[in-house]
Design a protein that fits this description.
By secondary structure, the protein is mostly helical. It has helices at about 15-20, 30-65, 65-70, 75-105, 115-120, 130-135, 140-170, 180-195, 200-220, 220-235, 235-255, 295-305, 315-325, 335-350, and strands at about 265, 270-275, 285-290, 310, 330. It has 14 helices and five strands. A five-stranded mixed sheet has the order 4-1-2-3-5, with helices on both faces.
């Protein structure tokens, strides 16, 4: 027998929304770190030469100050402004890219979410036992394996990159100044990018793992699903009783309309529908009551007690029952068949009052479209 406390059910949307309010959403630190590092390295390659040139210009300006300029506060501040102006452009661009990468990397998995509940201090976070449980639990083991994998992968990538750039790095002293400085920055940028790209496999593993971990934490027991459904939709027993009371009230209203009907069409035992037509109105015939089995018998009983004509037409009774709701007009495709029934009923009433001939029997096959036949 399955354990009712085992979390085997997928989380409901309500459970996920409540978890999101508490700040419990899937996040991948590896994805955010990898994105920041790679974009930082790429931006450094693009603006590295600009930063290097700006630094050279700043050093050239600072190292060529005259004696009078060094004793003049005005010239010193002008030199500082020149240095800041030279460096601020590429450095600001680099900082903006890193900032955007950091923000996007944090919300790439799970979307943007801010929760005061998650930001509030919790005593459980200070509990040493909880900390040990996190460290030595399944998640702690996975984090340890990821850390080891990062060290191995990054170290291997760094070794391969240094081996590839070894000759270029050793010959930097043979290049002319300032070309050797620019070249060194380029080497550093590409070395940085290669090492950062080594984080991609770690991030590729971590993203689905975080999805799996979050979904596993959000899973619910069968009892939790039942309780949530009961709380949100109401107790099934109460709802069933309400539906029964509504049905009984609707049935009473229909029974009150049966004496006002012009005709009751029957199956003749399982279905009954009561029709009313206002000859002075513009509306089509209206179905005022319908029922099956006991309710159908009750409709016929009330109709007989109030001298409402009862016509046996099984096909028409089923077609009206399944296509029309109480107090609604019958479908246009049934106008011809119902018109024949009403005409027969009116002729029959006139004959009984001595104002006409006895009508011919109603046709057994009435014009009912195939799509409405049941």
């Amino acid at each position: 027998m399955a354990d009712t406390h085992e979390k085997t059910e997928e989380p409901t949307s309500k459970k996920l929304d409540e978890a999101k309010e508490k700040g419990q959403i899937a996040r991948s630190k590896e994805l955010a770190t990898t994105l920041v590092l790679i974009l930082s390295a790429g931006t450094l390659i693009m603006v590295g030469q600009g930063i290097g040139s700006a630094m050279l210009n700043v050093m050239r300006r600072m190292f060529t100050l005259s004696r009078d300029e060094t004793y003049d506060d005005k010239h010193i501040f002008q030199a500082w402004a020149h240095g800041i102006g030279e460096v601020s452009g590429p450095v600001l661009l680099y900082m903006i890219v890193v900032m955007v990468a950091g923000i996007y990397g944090s919300i790439a998995l799970g979307g943007f979410n801010f929760s005061w509940k998650a930001a509030a201090p919790k005593a459980s976070k200070l509990n040493p036992l909880s900390g040990l449980k996190r460290m030595f639990g399944p998640n702690g083991i996975v984090e340890l394996l990821k850390a080891i994998a990062k060290v191995v992968v990054v170290a291997a990538s760094a070794f391969l990159a240094l081996s590839a750039f070894r000759e270029e790095a050793l010959h930097l002293d043979l290049e002319m100044y300032p070309r050797n400085v620019i070249h060194a920055l380029e080497l550093l940028g590409w070395l940085f990018l290669i090492i950062c790209c080594a984080m991609i496999p770690i991030a590729i593993f971590d993203v689905p793992y975080q999805h799996y971990k979050h979904n596993k934490e959000m899973k619910m027991t069968k009892q939790e699903v039942k309780d949530e459904h009961k709380n949100s939709e109401g107790d099934p027993q109460v709802k069933g009783r309400i539906r029964r009371l509504q049905y009984q009230a609707a049935a009473r209203r229909m029974m009150q309309e049966v004496p006002k009907a012009d005709v009751v069409v029957t199956n003749p035992t399982h279905f009954s529908v009561a029709l009313k037509y206002d000859q002075n109105g513009t509306r089509a015939p209206i179905m005022v009551a319908k029922g099956t089995d006991e309710l159908a018998m009750h409709i016929r009983k009330i109709a007989g007690a109030h001298e409402v004509p009862i016509i046996a037409s099984p096909m028409l009774a089923r077609a009206i029952y399944y296509s029309t709701e109480p107090d609604h007009e019958i479908p246009e495709k049934l106008f011809m068949a119902v018109a024949q029934v009403l005409a027969y009923v009116y002729q029959l009433k006139a004959w009984r009052k001595g104002r006409g001939k006895r009508p011919k029997p109603l046709a057994k096959e009435l014009p009912i479209p195939p799509e409405l036949r049941r």
